[in-house]
Amino acid sequence: MIIQTKFLGELEIEDSDIITFEQGMLGFSHLRQFYFLAVEGNPYLSYMQSLEDSDICFITIVPAAVVEEYNIEICSDTVEALKVKDQKDVELYAILNIHGEIENATVNLKAPVVINRHNKKAVQELLNDDRYDIKHPLVKES
Amino acid sequence: MLVLTRKKNESIMIGDDIEIIITDISEDKVKVGIRAPKTMKVFRKELIQAVELENQSSTQIDKLDIKKLEKIIKK
After folding, report:
1. pLDDT at A56 over 90
2. Least CB-CB distance to A76: which of B38, B58, B72?
C-alpha cells in the first residue's frame, strides 16, 4: 500500500507496520490507524504517521533515552484492550513535542503509547503517577 | 444532571461498585475519595484535557531536523 506521509513523502508500506488505536488518540479520537516507522539507523526515534490524515505525524522516543528508570503500571483495562498475552510483547513510546529550537523539545512521559507488538494494537495510556510529567525536557538543564 | 447535597463523610453510590465519598470540605475545596474497581479509569479532567492539547501541539512540527534531534539524544 502506498501512503502519503508528512515528513517522508510517499511511502510504500507493509500492512504489518500498521498499528491500530481502537479508541483513537486523545484529542484525535477519529484517527485509528498509524504507520509506525523507526527512524533509520536510530534505536530511539520513530515516526507515527496517521494513515487517515497525512498531515498528522507524531515523533516518538523510547523512554529509556530520556529517563534512567521508567517503571509504570499499565492498567488492567489496557492489558485487556491490547490482548496482551506475554509481557515481552509490550512496547512503550513517549511522544516528543518539538516547538522552536530542538533543544527545547519536551517528552510526554505522562501518557505513553503502549503497543502490543504481537497484534499491533495500541493505546495511549494515561498515568496517575506524579513522577512523570507531560512536558519532561528532552535535554537535561545543565 | 443530577445534583445531590452531601455532608462530610457522606457518600454516593454509582451502580453497585463505585462509591464517591466526601472526605473533607474546606472553604473552596472538597476532598473526594473514590472507591471503584481497578479496571475503572479515574482521572482529573484537567489531565485528560492537558494530554489532548499536548497531543495536538505535538503534531504541529513545522520543520523537523532529524539529524539535529539524533545528535541531541546521543549526548
Report:
1. yes
2. B38
What is the dihedral sign for C-alpha B49, B52, B55, B57? negative
A91 C-beta neighbours (distance < 10 Å), count: 16
- C-alpha cell belonging to residue B52: 489532548
Residue A142 has pLDDT above 70, yes or no: no
Cβ distance of A75 and B70 shorter than 8 Å: no
CA dihedral sign of residues A120, A42, A55, A10: negative
CA distance A94 to chain B (A): 11
pLDDT in tens, B30-73: 999 999 988 788 999 999 999 999 999 999 987 788 888 998 88
The Cα A82–Cα B24 span in angstroms is 38
Sign of the C-alpha dihedral, residues B68, A91, A114, A141?
A: negative
C-alpha cell at A95: 511522544
What is the rounded CA–CA span in Å between residue B64 and residue A33? 22
ipTM of the complex: 0.93
- Decide if A57 touches B, using CB distance below 8 A: yes
Please state, in angstroms and rounded to a whole number, the distance separating the CA atoms of residues A33 and A53: 10
Which whole-number Å values give the CA distances from A93 to A71, A110, B21, in the listed order? 13, 11, 36
**Residue among A122, A118, A138 nearest A44 (CA):** A138
